[in-house]
Amino acid sequence: MTDCLFCKIIEKEIPSYPVYEDEMVYAFLDITQTTKGHTLVIPKKHVTDIFEYDEKLAAEVFARVPKIARAIEKAFPDVVGLNIVNNNKEAAYQSVFHSHIHLIPRYGKEDDFSITFADNGSKYTTNDMATIAQSINKEIL
């Protein structure tokens, strides 16, 4: 894709700070550095988001995540956790439309990054939950 920022990074048309590269994946430091070591893992094949992955690509990309995560942990002994974040489509805060996985090292609760989840569980009955699960399950091929 000619106008994709991450494709240009893969092709070395735009400089980056590489962390890992092989035939399927390129990983590099996110320029925002939400926390020290914040890394993006991207497939070299252009896919917009998770909805465009096939099983083979998903297996290849996601298999690299633990290796890179362990490297971040070893590189920075003060890492006490790691968030793995993948935003898909604009409504889910995706801003670069080449699929990417954020690996965000955590150094403590005060490291200027947080994710919160609303607890809407009380809005759903057990029957609602069963119906939701069945709706998803019947679509899995």
Automatic annotation (TrEMBL):
Protein species of origin: Vagococcus teuberi
Domain annotation HIT: ranges: 5-115
CDD domains registered for this protein in UniProt: HINT_subgroup (cd01277)
Chain coiled-coil ranges: none
Transmembrane segments annotated in the record for this chain: none
A Pfam family matched in the record: HIT
Catalytic residues (positions): H100
Protein name stated in the entry: Histidine triad protein
Single GO MF annotation: catalytic activity
Motif segment (Histidine triad motif): 98-102
One Gene Ontology biological process: nucleotide metabolic process
